[in-house]
UniProtKB/TrEMBL annotation:
Name the record gives this protein: Asparagine--tRNA ligase
Family: Belongs to the class-II aminoacyl-tRNA synthetase family.
Domain Aminoacyl-transfer RNA synthetases class-II family profile intervals: 135-437
EC number: 6.1.1.22
Catalytic activity: tRNA(Asn) + L-asparagine + ATP = L-asparaginyl-tRNA(Asn) + AMP + diphosphate + H(+)
Biological classification of the source: Bacteria, Bacillati, Mycoplasmatota, Mycoplasmoidales, Metamycoplasmataceae
Cellular compartments annotated: Cytoplasm
Keywords of the record: Aminoacyl-tRNA synthetase, ATP-binding, Cytoplasm, Ligase, Nucleotide-binding, Plasmid, Protein biosynthesis
Species in which this protein is naturally found: Metamycoplasma salivarium
UniProt subunit comment: Homodimer.
One GO cellular component term noted in the UniProt record for this chain: cytoplasm
GO BP of this protein: asparaginyl-tRNA aminoacylation
Length: 447
């Protein structure tokens, strides 16, 4: 039995029922007559209150039990419907499994996120990180459920690959210590998309949910060298089909997480001036705004005085300040930006009739910017070959991908959700390093 199950099934509990549980001490307060320990088992941010009275306090040596210690307790469950905690455990027996040493860095007093980033193996012992990791897990589960309910096939795109799937040259190289293991250039995958496209041509609806790797030298609060991406790919879908799908997926997933994790969301909400849940609920109930890239350029041009980068022109890659301006000031909510200039987007995107833009979309959200990038894929073999030439990308390693266009190809569209960016959005956490257990960034690979 977990604390989460216990707290959500109070109706099934008999007052005075025997109960036994293991966990960690999160708080230890009281006096010589009565002590209250808060016990966590990681299943929820809520704790189980342990009550220990009179002679037992000395018997269990409670004054010596430090925060973070692991214990096993036995006792009787008492329903306390009028108290702030609806249930408590009156302890008859307590076994200290392992006390924490004095130097345990997680203490009751507030610590900074910077400090906690130095101890990624221990920071989950704070309530904040417990909440973040529980929401991360919840999002993962809801995303898988959504796809499974909609008859998507999960595919294991390879982690090690001979393709630079984005053609951006931001790859981490894989080799054995002896060298030349695969007898050709091999990378950690930057995307599972190309492999997902192969499977979409046959399974129709597929998705990946896997780590991806980018050697981007970006020291920002939104970039990791190792991040998780969810990449659905749907055959017979065009851009206008895939955008509403992405919108529905996100809204369903977020709404379920808010409903199912009230304690964690409440804790995170309190750290965001109680504005997090309201903002998310507003997003869920508002139709997604769609904006042409060229329309955004016109708006940004009018406000260029407000930016650091004031050179605004059709063809520019929008900076984070521009993306945020559109999402925060213009739309005041998430926005799907569509039809980007082809020169700032990847080789595989469908070239629009205007010859200038591609059928791409980015989902931009306030506070973060891009959380999804996707597109309709170029279906025309010749145009794809020509695009590779223009971009000086070698055709040979991608020949298999080009060949898909020859064997019963159907239009195909898909997107990638940056999983950590989604976790940031839902938890309100500002730095991407704080929503993944062990973050990897340029120059930083702890543990
Ligand atoms: O826009 P991106 O580069 O698109 C792709 O990789 C496509 N192959 C997806 C597809 O169509 N199947 O990346 C998708 C998302 C971004 O919107 C962003 O949220 C996230 O992945 N992302 C990163 N997240 C953390 N750290 C990084 N370095 C990221 N790079 C991209
Ligand atoms: Mg992108």
């Amino acid at each position: 039995m977990t604390i989460k199950k216990l707290l959500t099934s109070l109706n099934d509990i008999k007052h005075g029922q025997d109960f036994e549980i293991q966990g960690w001490v999160q708080n230890n307060r009281g006096n010589e007559k009565i002590k209250f320990l808060a016990l966590t088992d990681g299943s929820t941010v809520d704790t189980l209150q342990l009550v220990i009275k009179s002679e037992n306090i000395k018997r269990f040596n409670l004054d010596k039990i430090n925060l973070g210690s692991s214990i096993k307790v036995k006792g009787k469950l008492l329903l306390t419907p009028t108290a702030p905690q609806p249930i408590e455990l009156a302890v008859d027996d307590l076994i200290l499994i392992n006390n924490t040493d004095e130097d345990f860095p997680i203490q009751k007093k507030e610590t900074t996120l910077d400090f906690l980033r130095e101890i990624p193996h221990l920071r989950h012992r704070t309530n904040l990180f417990r909440a973040i990791m529980i929401i991360r897990n919840a999002l993962l589960f809801e995303i898988h459920s959504y796809f499974q309910k909609h008859d998507f096939l999960n595919i294991a795109a390879p982690i090690i690959t001979s393709n630079d799937g984005e053609g951006a040259g931001e790859t981490l190289i894989v080799n054995s210590s002896e060298g030349d293991f695969f007898k050709q250039k091999s990378f950690l995958g930057v995307t599972g998309q190309l492999h997902a496209e192969a499977y979409a041509a046959g399974f129709k609806k597929v998705y990946t949910f896997a780590p991806t790797f980018r050697a981007e030298n970006s020291h920002t609060t939104k970039h990791l060298a190792e991040f998780w991406m969810i990449e659905p790919e749907v055959a017979f879908y065009e851009l206008n089909d895939i955008i509403p799908f992405a919108d529905n997926l996100l809204k369903t997933v977020i709404s379920n997480v808010i409903k199912k994790y009230p304690s964690e969301m409440k804790l995170l909400d309190s750290l965001k001036d109680n504005n997090l849940i309201t903002t998310l609920k507003k997003y869920i109930s508002t139709p997604l705004k769609i904006m042409e890239y060229k329309e955004a350029i016109k708006i940004l041009e009018k406000h260029k005085k407000e930016f650091e980068e004031q050179n605004i022109f059709f063809g520019m890659d929008l900076g984070s300040e521009h993306e945020k301006f559109i999402a925060e000031k213009v739309v005041n909510g998430p926005v799907a930006m569509i039809n980007y200039p082809k020169d700032i987007k990847a080789f595989y995107m469908y070239q629009n009739d205007d010859k200038k833009t591609v059928a791409a979309f980015d989902l931009l959200v306030p506070g973060i910017g891009e959380i999804i990038g996707g597109s309709q894929r170029e279906s025309r073999y010749e145009l794809l070959v020509q695009r590779l030439k223009e971009l000086k990308i070698k055709q040979e390693p991608l020949q298999w991908y080009l060949d898909l266009r020859k064997y019963g190809y159907a239009p195909s569209s898909g997107f990638g959700i940056g999983f950590e960016r989604l976790v940031m959005y839902v938890t309100g956490v500002a730095n991407i390093r704080d929503v993944i257990p062990f973050p990897r960034t340029p120059g930083n690979i702890k543990m």
